Amino acid sequence: MAQVHRPLIIQSQFIRLSCPRNVRKTPPFLRPRRHCIHTANVTDHDIARLATLPLHPLTLADLVKHGKPPLTTSQLLSSANFTLSILPARLAHRIQSLRNLPFIVVSNPHISQIHSNYIHSLSTLLPWAEREITTLEEEIKFTEVMADLVQTHANTISILARGFLEARKYISPNDVTQFLDEHLRARIGTRLIAEQHLALHFSSQPHREMMHEDGEELSGYVGVIDTRLRPARIVQHCENVVGEICELKYGVRPHVVINGEPDYAFAHVPVHLEYIITELLKNAFRATVEDGKEREPIEVTIAPLPEELNNNNSNNSSSKAENHLPGHVIKSPDQGITDMASRRFTGKLSSPSPTADEQIRPLAHSTPGVTIRIRDRGGGISPENYAHIWDYSFTTFNEEQASSTLSGASSKSGSGMDALNAISGPGGEGGHSLAGLGYGLPLGRAYAEYFGGGIAVQSMWGWGTDVYLSLRGVGRVEGDIRI
């Protein structure tokens, strides 16, 4: 079986999208020690003050700018202070967005738990706020705070999903969708910032040799970012995982053919790509088998973005170059670039367009990227379902479907909590936690779009489906970090 090897820090903080026998326990040095962490009382004034601060427009370049591990003392302190400078405001924005929900919704035990988790995390950061980390001893204590934060919010998505499902009588599906779109995209950045510092910290310590697996050289990693990421290896790994589960359920499994440029490599976050590819292959495998076309291969084409797009820094010229791609299909300019909570709580809701501080800035056009097409012969998507493929499907559950999902039974005939759904779960979500709740495609698109990529679907009803995934990297990282 092809395996995708990654640093231990990545495996411990993101979900392992693999068979249960491959799941690893969190190593002792990453387990938060809450009894060692000082907290401060969080007042409404603290939240209101921090929520007025603009959100830092995170890019992947921010995550590699401190250097390549092992970091020097000054680089490690720089990473810690950068992390500290932007996380308190992000947590405050999330608290405010939760408080903006109807009171009866926030009173739901699950949603109230998420609110309490954010209050706890902010209380651990307040003792560090408005100060500078100047010693390695302080950096070590701050890293414990980051480990606590990551662990505290490990199951945020699944808890929120069940909370909104229970409170569905008191909030409209559209309001839920809008809240989740904003909240989940903001969560991507918050977790990345915290996990990147954790990864840089542990890869710069004497025990960093523990992060090697099977003797593989991991010098291509900068924290959670693989600067030599080969999408073909991710596809092969996900094919094996999804294929085994598919064969367990249906007794057969389609095979995947990879073409294009399978040796192409670029810099990106591997666990994000792994989650997206897993979700897309799940859909392709299911459609192919259920349409009786299991002998037809699922075709995955890997194509680097054209050089004129990668090397041209002119916005006008780049836009013209994008027009030669299926850019009108891949690009979703209204997704993942604005944190509406920031605009709402800073009094800028009436702004005609988001300011630079309010944007989650896509990467420059000069960064290398890739387009991955997944093509199946699974009969396509019916016209009545095509318009709803990006919905969180649980928002349209009837009473019977909602009750069966909450009780752990199959939520939808033929598409509920089955073996294929059981391997869902990004960013710390475990096992069956998201199964049957319709999070796969919407959340996969959020991961793709957060840094300027996207997912688009073209379906031929009665024939099959093409899915286009576009991703941008962090730029070329050779020797010293150069963006």
Automatic annotation (TrEMBL):
According to the UniProt record, where is the region Disordered? 305-335, 405-424
Q: Could you confirm whether the keyword Phosphoprotein appears in this record?
A: yes
Enzyme nomenclature, EC number:
2.7.11.-
Name where it's found: Mitochondrion matrix
GO molecular function terms noted in the UniProt entry: ATP binding; pyruvate dehydrogenase (acetyl-transferring) kinase activity
Question: Where does the Histidine kinase/HSP90-like ATPase domain start and stop, copy by copy?
Answer: 268-475
Q: Does the keyword Transferase apply?
A: yes
Q: Which UniProt keywords apply?
A: ATP-binding, Kinase, Mitochondrion, Nucleotide-binding, Phosphoprotein, Transferase
Q: Name one Pfam family in it.
A: BCDHK_Adom3
GO CC field: mitochondrial matrix
**Could you tell me where the Low complexity compositional bias lies?**
310-319, 405-416
Question: What does the entry give for GO biological process?
Answer: regulation of glucose metabolic process
**Top EC class, one word:** transferase
- Coarsely, its chief localization is mitochondrion
Q: Which domain of life is it from?
A: Eukaryota
Q: Which family does it belong to?
A: Belongs to the PDK/BCKDK protein kinase family.
Indicate what this protein is called per its UniProt record: Protein-serine/threonine kinase
**Species, as recorded:** Lojkania enalia
